[in-house]
Amino acid sequence: MKAGIYVDAENVMRNGGWGMRYDILKQIIIDQGATVVRANVYMAVDWRREKVDEAYRSKKEDYRNQVRRCGFKIVPKEVRRYYNEDGQVITKANTDLDLAVDALLQNRNLDYVVLLTGDGDFVRLVTALQNTGTRVDVISFHNTSRNLRESADYHCYGFLIPNLVPTDESRTRGFLFSVDEERYFGHIATLRAFQEYGRNIFCHGSEFEERISNKELSILKERQSILEFDVFDSDRGPQAKNIALIKPPQESTTTPPTTLPGD
Questions:
Q1: Residues ≥6 apart with Cβ < 8 Å to 195
Q2: What tens digit of pLDDT does each residue of 25-69 get?
Q3: Which of 27, 71, 92, 107 is deepest in the core (most CB within 10 A)?
């Protein structure tokens, strides 16, 4: 099975995928029995700033080199600057079209595509690829389009894939897949590996570190919000305690680390 990986890097980093391990990403696709023949990362690049800021350029270039060492091709999109109506400078670098065109053209030689983004603008791309007989899986982080999740053959939150992003290894992550709003409890789905679910964990609303209402518990399920928690085994099975909500990150311009095998 020939696979292609297409990473919308700006969407991934803006929505909690900061520090994503590109080596792990590639390995989990290989573990599905696939041969990765295309691996593209679509990344905004501020050439203008890099020309005048040596420290910034060095940091960004090191990061790009690390991604390349993981076997990914970087497809750069130059950052453009615009003035808004208040006279403020707005930067923008939309890589959506580049990614979509490449995926459609390269799909002729692929059986399987893995798309990393939560952007609903890619729904049409997913269905177009599927109409050619290609399986399309989506990995995303925060702010994922419901339509995108539902259009994919399989959708997975990157937060749940072991070792893909930095986590506290003593804690478990998952999302609510069922809730009894009136009785104030639910059940959390966890992931053992990509496309392989682990134990279902009982969750009572009183175990959240920040108090939530019965209705808010249901909303967390509808949004498939990511939870982090401790697990203890009771007579009734595994239960979650000290539950925290993994919240979307604040906007950051810091370059994330990309750890490589042996580093």
A1: 32, 137, 154, 156
A2: 999 999 999 999 999 999 989 888 899 999 999 999 999 999 999
A3: 107
